[in-house]
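User: Let's play a game. I give you a shape written as tokens, and you guess the letters that built it. Ready? Here's round one.
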């Protein structure tokens, strides 16, 4: 899950300014029915009851996955939204670009940029980083906030449903679920028709210099949706996957197709295998692994890991292309 350092304390002037919510930014036309609705509603959250706008017009997502969820639920965005700062210069390419057209960006990682959040003048904040206690505490000083821990290891779609229910957007949630299932059914039918039945796994290069096979995030959810065989190495003895030193790489040889998360480069392309695995690429055992030798080591944008409607669909497209094109 994305890890953030503890945020800096808000200066007194910012806290004071945050208490007065601004009302400018991009929005949507208000219908007659919406005019008759209460302007706010009280909803339950994992952190107690919160009062939020019934129809936000300038919403902000604390993390990029939150932005994607807001778009999918049909909630208008504020004119400025956060992105990661570690390799990203814009929103992920697989996000809905039309809804993001004209929106300014600011880096919100590795430190939280409260000044930029305040300057965006949101009337509502969706915060999926509920594991950060300081964030949960401070964001309501800027705007009404719905916080949830979207990175607790569970299926992100459960959190998506919870958010949609709280925001009164269950129809939009169900529409996405139905459309996604249609795509899954179509890909599964193609797999069955071609009788392809590979062993798959996410395989990445860990910060400690070891190769890691695990099921964190979206990839194994998609594999399960498609009924693919997932390597047992992704579970490991404690369900957290398996690490391999360079001397143990041959244990990965039962994997037919592997998928690796990658940062985008300055040109927008994903980091190459040689760049991402420079300490491993020349290893003889590695070069002779089945998925490496067969060119079946497939990169995907790291932001697809973290669970959002567009990211989940985009990874399904990656799998479909890797197995069937």
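Assistant: Ready! My guess for every position:
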């Amino acid at each position: 899950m994305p890890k953030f350092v503890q945020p800096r304390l808000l200066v007194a002037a910012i806290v004071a300014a945050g208490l007065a919510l601004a009302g400018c930014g991009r929005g949507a036309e208000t219908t007659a029915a919406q005019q008759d609705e209460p302007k706010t509603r009280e909803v339950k959250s994992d952190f107690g009851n919160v009062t939020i706008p019934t129809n936000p017009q300038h919403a902000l997502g604390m993390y990029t996955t939150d932005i994607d969820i807001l778009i999918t639920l049909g909630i208008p965005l504020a004119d400025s939204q956060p992105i990661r700062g570690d390799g990203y210069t814009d929103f992920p390419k697989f996000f809905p670009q039309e809804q993001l057209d004209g929106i300014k960006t600011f880096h919100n990682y590795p430190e939280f940029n409260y000044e930029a959040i305040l300057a965006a003048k949101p009337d509502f904040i969706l915060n999926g980083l509920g594991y950060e206690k300081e964030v949960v505490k401070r964001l309501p000083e800027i705007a009404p906030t719905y916080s949830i821990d979207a990175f607790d290891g569970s299926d992100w779609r459960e959190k998506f449903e919870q958010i949609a229910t709280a925001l009164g957007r269950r129809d939009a949630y169900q529409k996405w679920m139905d459309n996604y299932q249609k795509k899954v059914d179509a890909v599964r039918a193609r797999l069955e028709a071609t009788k392809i039945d590979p062993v798959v796994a996410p395989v990445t290069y860990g910060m400690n210099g070891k190769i890691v096979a695990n099921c964190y995030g979206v990839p194994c959810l998609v594999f399960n949706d498609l009924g693919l065989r997932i390597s047992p190495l992704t579970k490991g003895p404690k369900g957290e996957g398996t690490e391999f030193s360079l001397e143990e790489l041959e244990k990965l040889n039962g994997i037919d197709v592997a998928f690796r998360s990658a940062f985008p480069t300055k040109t927008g392309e994903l980091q190459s295998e040689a760049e991402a695995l420079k300490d491993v690429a020349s290893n003889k055992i590695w070069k002779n692994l089945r998925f490496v030798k067969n060119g079946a080591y497939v990169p995907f944008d790291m932001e697809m890991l973290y669970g959002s409607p567009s990211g989940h669909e985009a990874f399904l497209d990656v799998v479909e292309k890797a197995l069937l094109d």
